[in-house]
Amino acid sequence: MQVESLIDRIKDRELRSISEKVLEGKRLSFQEAVELFYKADLTLVGSLAEWVNRKKNGMFAYFIVNRQINPTNICVYQCNFCSFGVLKSDPRAYEMSLQEVLKKVEETYRQGGREVHIVGGIPPHWRVEDYINLVREIKRHFPDMVVKAWTAIEIHHMSKISKRSYEDILLELKSAGLDAIPGGGAEIFSERVRHIIAPYKANAEEYLEVHRTAHRLGIPSNATMLYGHIETYEERVEHMQRLRDLQDETGGFQVFIPLAYWPEGTRLGGKRTSSVDDLKTIAIARLFLDNFDHIKAYWITLGERLAQVALNFGADDLDGTIQEEKIVHSAGTKSAVGHSKEKLIKLIREAGKIAVERDTFYNPVAIYP
Ligand code: V47
Q: In a structure prediction context, what are the per-residue pLDDT tens digits for the chain, which is 369 residues long?
């Protein structure tokens, strides 16, 4: 059904006016996005979001040949939504040696990988040099590999333990070879929720300030939102509003990644989100974040099948081959730990889209029509 004829059938005055605004290319307000969460059905938001996505990205859907490396699960912050991070004394604690990390990067490099995504716990004994050396050594051995490493949480932590500014830390990381910053650690910006789910780590202002500084220094970054635990719809939209405001200011975000919460083994507990909630959240993100070029359907949290469907509900990117993921797997996701490039191309094709292999910065590397 054409999206225009779908709108003709909407009885609700507010939903009709929001839909018309979308088709006119006008920006949605906070209240309108909240309204969509409460009142709109999946078909409506999905059709509108896909209409917007096709205007931005045509029939292209992106993936990257990459690897995620989680060098350690030892973490001082012990967030209540996380079952990956453990204390140093925990029998499950691990820490990879530099050689182990380099071996993993080499494996990915030999398979045509272009990006390593590094994110892990924050061990009490790591100094700033440990974070910087890891980047430097990867870049020294594999100069062509893009290093997307350390979230705003790690960067804030480095700044805190060394009493150096974000700018200082980021400049040193950049000269060691850091190319981009992943979006992890945003969780939900609302103070009420953060106080309960992640009381000790960087707060919303600090997360945003790290990204603001990175953008000013020419380091692009990604943004995430962990949803489906104790936050309200208003708090989801407030989160996206703060990202949209910063994007207006800097233009440095490449992609928005809604991360569906998995509760297994967490102190916070709770239930897995429904598929309808996952798709609606992706669709509303596509509608609200008009200044973001890309919305990622992260197949690790959504599962391969739902991520594939999300490519028709406003998302245009699946992330990548990944090869190894421990954070969401600790919390119960049943998705594979990695997929071949061929599998990702197949998922995209079956969704009716044209698969585009990209680099970290969304430059196309190969098109698989
Ligand atoms: O920050 C932790 C999330 C994030 C759980 O930038 C959980 O391209 C669900 O940020 N259930 C790390 N999620 C992963 C991440 C990411 C992933 C893919 C791509 C990019 C990118 C970034 O994982 C954490 C946290 O928000 N997480 N625990 C959980 N129980």
A: 578 888 888 999 999 999 999 999 999 999 999 999 999 999 999 999 999 999 999 999 999 999 999 999 999 999 999 999 999 999 999 999 999 999 999 999 999 999 999 999 999 999 999 999 999 999 999 999 999 999 999 999 999 999 999 999 999 999 999 999 999 999 999 999 999 999 999 999 999 999 999 999 999 999 999 999 999 999 999 999 999 999 999 999 999 999 999 999 999 999 999 999 999 999 999 999 999 999 999 999 999 999 999 999 999 999 999 988 899 999 998 888 888 999 999 999 999 999 999 999 999 999 998
The pairs formed by 339-345 with CB atoms below 8 angstroms and a separation of 24 or more are 339/299, 339/304, 341/63, 341/65, 341/112, 343/304, 344/63, 344/318, 344/320, 345/63
User: Of the residues 68, 73, 82, 301, which should be mutated to test ligand 1's pocket, given the most ligand atoms within 8 Å of the CB?
Assistant: 82
In a domain, 301, yes or no: yes
Of 200, 284, 186, which Cα lies nearest the Cα of 234?
A: 284
Ligand 1 centroid to Cα of residue 120, in Å, is 10
Number of folded domains in the chain?
A: 2
Q: Which residue range forms the structural domain that includes residue 8? A: 3-51
Same-domain pairing of 132 and 17 = no
Tell me, yes or no, whether 115 lies in a domain.
yes
Same domain, 24 and 131: no
- CATH number, domain containing residue 237: 3.20.20.70
Backbone angles phi, psi at 226, to 5 degrees: -90, 115
| Span from the CA of 7 to the centroid of ligand 1 (angstroms) | 35
Locate the ligand 1 atom nearest the alpha carbon of residue 119 and give its number: 12
Determine if the pTM surpasses 0.85: yes
State the Cα–Cα distance between residues 55 and 78, nearest whole angstrom: 42
The rounded Å distance from CA 175 to ligand 1 centre is 26
Ligand 1 close to Cβ of residue 327 (< 6 A): yes
105 in the same domain as 25: no
